[in-house]
Fold this protein.
Amino acid sequence: MTAHIKTDTLLKAENIHLSYGENVILRDINFCIRDIIRPGIKQGQVVSLIGRSGIGKTQLFRILAGLQKPTSGTVELKNKETVKAGDMGVIFQNYYLFEWRTVYQSLLLAAKQNAALKGTEKETIDQYADQFNLKEELKKYPQQLSGGQRQRASIIQQLLKGSDFLLLDEPFSGLDVCVIDKVTTLLLQVSLSDELKTLIIVSHDIATSVAISDTVWILGNETGKDGATIKKEIDLIERDLAWRTDIKKDKAFNETVEEIKDCL
Ligand SMILES: Nc1ncnc2c1ncn2[C@@H]1O[C@H](COP(=O)(O)OP(=O)(O)O)[C@@H](O)[C@H]1O
Ligand SMILES: [Mg+2]
């Protein structure tokens, strides 16, 4: 196993329950994201919540982002405060951007919300645009971008705001295979750029989520009970499946993917 220690709790979801009238969507959701420290390496956290379509991932995503109140239960951050809208960088499935602003104008607006960037907004945008291969697109409007470009613009927009958490809903869907690999690399790069950064991915794409994460939680139904809950937690570090680039060829990786499929 790769040397590491898990220290402080960064986020704790406790007894989350969500119903619409009689319809139970989520129940008894409990999980905890802890700070990972690797000797000599800058390392953020990457976790995934995996579940099939319609299970309640987007609902849970909204609750974690502080955009929706659960029927009961809490999402607490490190300071023991309940998460609220604006605490997290949120990347929606449709990569929401201001359609009437150029990419650059949108990014500048995001950068201006971050006091730490005061005076260096333009340079920072240029650096990100360079790193994310989006320089040519800065002067374009969102409708002139491809899906992959919209997603990258949306990720930069949230990174500029400077929040420690980046929450992504289905970041691998609607992108072609080559683009998925690029996004995976980019997200890993983001997680390595800052000790404090935590990426929370909500997805039905098992293989890509496992390949990028240090921990996964499987969201599913249990026989005889209404509503989705966490059926299993898999610590990928313990299985030696985290932080490796060649991972998809590994036998243990494929076994883990099969194990998750059987659980959904
Ligand atoms: N406002 C709402 N009122 C009632 N049911 C809803 C509402 N929003 C979502 N749902 C239901 O919650 C369930 C989970 O939806 P969602 O979280 O979007 O699934 P997923 O993202 O996993 O595909 C679905 O059955 C959906 O119909
Ligand atoms: Mg969804």
Summary: The first strand starts at residue 5 and ends at 20.
